[in-house]
Amino acid sequence: MLKLDGVDTYYGPIHILQKLELEVGSGELVCLLGGNASGKSTTLKTVLGIVKPRSGSVEFDGEDVTGRPTSYRIGKGMAIVPENRRLFAPMSVRENLEMGAYLHGGGTKEDWDRVYTLFPLLHERRAQLAGTLSGGEQQMVAMGRALMSRPKLLLMDEPSMGLAPILVEKNFEIIQQVHESGVAILVVEQNANVSLAIADRGYVLQTGRVVLSGPAAELLRHEDLRKAYLGR
Amino acid sequence: MADTSPPTPEPPAAATAQIGVDSWVSEEDQRREGRKWLGRTWERLPPAGKLALLTPAIAVPFLPLSEANIYNYGLFILIYALLALGLNVVVGFAGLLDLGYVAFFGFGAYIYAFLSGTHHEKGHVYTHHWAAQWSILTAVVMCAVIGLFLGSSSRRLLGDYLAIVTLFFGQAFVVFTNSADPYGITNGSNGLGNIDPLRFFAFGASFTVSSTRGYYWFLFGCVIVVLIVLHLLSESRTGRAWKASREDPLAAEMMGMPVNRLKIMAFSFGAAIAGLAGSVFAAAQTGAFPQNFGTQVLILIYAVVILGGTGSLTGMLAGATAIIVSFQVLDSTSPPNNARTLFYLSLVVGVVVIFKKSRAQMAVAVASTVALGFALHAIVHEVWPRGTSGQVTSGGYLTGAIKHWVLLPTNPNRLAVYGYLALIVLVITIVQLKGWWRVAVVPPTIVLTAFVWENLLIQQPAVTRYVLFGVLLIALMATRPQGLFGTAKVEIA
Ligand SMILES: Nc1ncnc2c1ncn2[C@@H]1O[C@H](COP(=O)(O)OP(=O)(O)OP(=O)(O)O)[C@@H](O)[C@H]1O
Ligand SMILES: [Mg+2]
């Protein structure tokens, strides 16, 4: 589904991603771990085409999309839940969701039904301005907005940031639900424990390099990772 | 022993926080109740209803006016409403700072003039007499294309760059039409005269708009059509995509919106509307002159957009009406007494706005203002007779009141200038003060304002109007930052 091959990404002169190799199989749930400033968000931005790698290639759904603009990749089936949600504050919940399906004509009836079934609260609040929602509610909108485009690959950047523990769990249930419906997912998380529990595989980034990767169950048991992230 | 203490009563449900119930939302209805009845009804009205109410509201007051007044007021209000509606797409919908907008107004006018008119250029005569519909259409399309090029030139349309590039473009237009034109096609500062009136040919029949009233109705139709188109556009996916990319371009990009293309599109759309306004304007005044498209016109258009409330369509009509009426009333050719009426009216409005929270304070302030004026007049009359022996400048129905309430020295020039400076200080002071301190300072300020007005400003209405605009916009900024019809900004908390 997604394959990064020898990707080098720079911000000006600063070399961020260094020879990054990463793969997400069809319908797979892959977790991307790493400390602050290790390049997780940059990886997602590179996948989406917001930043272009200086060398290496990004392959999506059997096609090299390295030179393609973001809109092309979205049209081909990527969607993102961005870091900090980035909702359109003065627009209603409904309008935010519609913007998620911008390239798909604003969403079909099934798209709306699917999202509203997954998040009944969004239907209830469809007329409320997104900027006035609580953080947890905003997270649902961000998730719903990404799902409106019927993605094949869903990118998520710290979806449980700022959520109460109970909501984190609920959030991951929904992620799993989406995953089970056949969507491939690449999720960036600080919360290694919860995310590895539902993931198929995981990668650990450090200063822009993959330092560890493998099946989730194995990573959970891994000494170094436990020390670095799980604190025990 | 049994617990005999009465059970603690449950607090009423509405007063406690409840899971899943957002207090902001549940209070929304109450907040709506609290608003003024009129505003509430207006808000709930469907767009078609608003239009049905607005149309006669704009049209009817102009029916009894003379041709000259229809030209000065009706025509200009509609032209500026049209211009503001176009600029609103660029500034309000897409959030781009376009400082060269007025050049598209000019392009529209000159293109119409070339295609429908007779002109002498360096010795030989050019005549094209295209039917008005084709000239207008060409002007609109060409402005859209020029807008497209200009928009693409500053590719990323980053705020400051776009502002500078367009500012330069606007200035270049004026310089070119004025003097830097090597072949004389724009006829320099004399501009182009001999322009055809709007003459439509179709299916062998022809129809000419010949009276000012005719132009008024034609423009009226244009405004209604543009209003409807823009309303549909703003409610469309593209309209919402503009809004989204204005709020957060990166997020919009992440949703797959072609942010740059959307911006250029808005830019070009606005240019096209300006082109429409320009071509009809040229036909109406049967001429196109460089000074019609200068910076002060740009300032006026921006004033309309800001006053009306960026992003609001009906706001543009209200803004255009307010700005053009005050601008024309303060014109040096309009009777000074009109300007006087406007001036005292805005004073009254100012007082109402300042004291809208407390009727008692307002009553005290008004009463002491009136008393202070008469008292001062009486004292000065005794002590320094020359201080009250001046004449009221072209007084009308207010002459009597002014003569006994405002000090009118025989030779007021220098005194009035000092008064003007003192007035600035007082106004700044008022803004800083609160409560009863403010009540104490307002009366002397109003008396001084009237003094400066009657002795200095009324003789210079053309300068005064810019001062008045400045004050108007500052006052609006303080009381209603979103403009007359705009909606307040919502930020992610
Ligand atoms: N637009 C930018 N310009 C310059 N440097 C940037 C830019 N965006 C990110 N960086 C830098 O790149 C590095 C990696 O950033 P990135 O956002 O990918 O980290 P991250 O792994 O997502 O961290 P976090 O967990 O804190 O979100 C950081 O050092 C950051 O300062
Ligand atoms: Mg990050």
CATH architecture of the largest domain in chain B: Orthogonal Bundle
Kindly state the number of beta strands of chain A.
Answer: 10
- Chemical compounds bound to the protein: adenosine-5'-triphosphate, magnesium ion
Overall spatial form of chain A:
globular
Average per-residue pLDDT of chain A, rounded, comes to 91
Given the structure, what is the number of helices of chain A?
10
> Whole-number average pLDDT of chain B?
82
Q: Largest interface, counted with CB-CB under 8 A?
A: A-B, 37 and 26 residues
Strand content of chain B: under 5%
Give the termini separation of chain B. 52 Å
Oligomer: heterodimer
Q: Which CATH architecture of one domain in chain A?
A: 3-Layer(aba) Sandwich
* CATH third-level topology of the largest domain in chain B: ABC transporter involved in vitamin B12 uptake, BtuC
Looking at this structure, what is the CATH superfamily of one domain in chain A?
P-loop containing nucleotide triphosphate hydrolases
Estimated helix fraction of chain A: 25-40%
Main sheet summary of chain A = 6 strands, mixed
Walk me through the structure.
- The complex is a heterodimer of chains A (232) and B (493).
- Chain A is of the alpha/beta class and 232 residues long.
- Chain A has a domain at 1-77 and 153-161 and 182-232: Rossmann fold, CATH 3.40.50.300.
- Chain A is 38% helix and 27% strand.
- A six-stranded mixed β-sheet of chain A has the order 6-7-8-3-9-10, sandwiched between helices.
- In chain A, a hairpin with a 2-residue loop joins strand 1 and strand 2.
- The mean pLDDT of chain A is 91.
- Chain B has two domains: 47-329, Orthogonal Bundle (ABC transporter involved in vitamin B12 uptake, BtuC); 338-459, no CATH class.
- In chain B, the strands form two sheets. A two-stranded antiparallel sheet of chain B has the order 1-2.
- Chain B is globular.
- The relative contact order of chain B is 0.11.
- Chains A and B meet through helix 2, helix 3 and helix 6 of A and helix 10 and helix 11 of B.
- The structure holds adenosine-5'-triphosphate and magnesium ion.
- The site of magnesium ion (MG) has 4 residues of chain A, from helix 1.
